[in-house]
Amino acid sequence: MSLRIWIAAGTTEGRLLAEDLADENVELAVTVATEYGASLIIDKPNVSVLDKRLNDRGMAEFIDQFKPDLAIDATHPYAAMVTETMRRVCEKKGVVYKRLLRPPTDEEDCLRFSSVEEAAAWLDEKEGVIFLTTGSKDLHKFATIRNYEQRLVARILPVRESLDKALDNGYIPSRIIAMQGPFSVDLNTAMFKEFQSSWVVTKNSGSVGGFSQKLEAARAARAKLIVIERPEDAGSSYEEIRDFVKSQTEA
């Protein structure tokens, strides 16, 4: 009998894990938040995909329908509320829960802040163009920065929801870049230089999230990297999760 696994895939690792496990004796149900995210998931007979944002009730109903033996939380390191909800619902439903975490980076040549609000308040007192690579979720928080319409450049995913958020928060179309990564050092550098950026804002997304490319590009463009630190969390590496699942299928 095949192992039934739910992968909440909000990261590159979630997508890669689905590809890695699809050839095993498993039945995978992958949940993502958007139709675009669903389009990136491997297409195989034993892999089903649901593109829908799930709250606690939605997660409980999904578990009742799919009846997973194992739930793997591969959502974004900054999606703390989603992680807490998934962990709580799985515990209540008696489903084994595993948190997949990408390792953070600890480079010293950058300025680190514990929250978006803290970084925005600090940048409000500075001068120069600010290049945002933190996605669309927190655009409204950066819009508190004085003269933000002229100072901010937002790089977001090329999906309607992200673009609507940027426009609704007053971002100027000519200062919105709707583009899907990964971004090379050269491409990042060209973008940072094009807008004469003094500051580049990123999350501590680790090597998979393109952190090193942003850092090197910021140096080349003579901009300072601003890092929003991730919430504290506990979990397992990609390799540990993969090996655990494979050991279960071989048992």
Automatic annotation (TrEMBL):
GO terms for biological process: cobalamin biosynthetic process. Coiled coil: none annotated. It comes from the Bacteria. Pfam families: CbiJ. GO terms for molecular function: precorrin-6A reductase activity. Its EC number is 1.3.1.54. Keywords: Cobalamin biosynthesis, Oxidoreductase. The keyword Oxidoreductase applies. Pathway: Cofactor biosynthesis; adenosylcobalamin biosynthesis. Transmembrane segments: none annotated. This is Precorrin-6A reductase. It comes from Megasphaera micronuciformis F0359.
